[in-house]
């Protein structure tokens, strides 16, 4: 596209075709759209003014009460409002002093909280959940092995259960 000439270039089948864009037509259509928008805005303003005029005539009979926002409000008599409790800090301090005067020792002291712990107590605590899961899996596996032996018919129930318990007691080599 070349600037300033109002012409547009297109490439089709190896040939360059130039088409003129009618700038005058596009500017006229834009002007018409702008004028239409202005007309609608003016109509809307007129409607809003008519609605506001109706409201103002009804509210003019009422006395308007001003609200003051730059300083503390006062009641109708002109006296300042006393909403502040001046002794709040003193009450708070008195409560804290009463709490500090109670110097009784704690009735029950748990010895386990005072006794020193083993070095690896935190590691055992962290691993405990994983060990519970593994213990459950182990129990399921033992039960499954007992069921398989009973289905095979090679051993009796008491022997199968005892062999499972015996394998639990044996240390892993």
UniProtKB/TrEMBL annotation:
Residues 35-50 have a biased composition (Basic and acidic residues). Keywords: Coiled coil. Residues 124-151 form a coiled coil. The keyword Coiled coil applies. The keyword Membrane does not apply. One of its GO terms (cellular component) is U2-type spliceosomal complex. InterPro entries: mRNA_splic_Cwf18-like (IPR013169). Residues 35-65 are annotated as: Disordered. This is Cwf18 pre-mRNA splicing factor. It comes from Acanthocheilonema viteae.
């Amino acid at each position: 596209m070349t600037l300033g000439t109002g012409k547009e270039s297109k490439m089709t089948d190896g040939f360059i075709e130039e088409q003129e864009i009618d700038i005058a037509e596009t500017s006229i259509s834009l002007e018409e759209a702008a004028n239409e928008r202005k007309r609608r805005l003016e109509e809307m303003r007129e409607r809003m003014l008519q609605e506001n005029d109706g409201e103002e005539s009804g509210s003019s009979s009422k006395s308007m009460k001003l609200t003051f926002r730059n300083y503390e409000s006062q009641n109708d008599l002109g006296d300042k409002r006393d909403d502040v409790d001046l002794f709040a800090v003193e009450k708070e301090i008195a409560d804290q002093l009463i709490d500090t005067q109670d110097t009784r020792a704690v009735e029950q002291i748990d010895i386990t909280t005072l006794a020193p712990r083993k070095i690896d107590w935190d590691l055992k605590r962290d691993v405990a959940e994983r060990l519970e899961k593994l213990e459950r899996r182990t129990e399921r596996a033992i039960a499954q092995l007992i069921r398989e032996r009973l289905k095979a018919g090679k051993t009796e129930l008491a022997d199968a259960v005892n062999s499972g318990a015996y394998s639990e007691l044996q240390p892993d080599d």
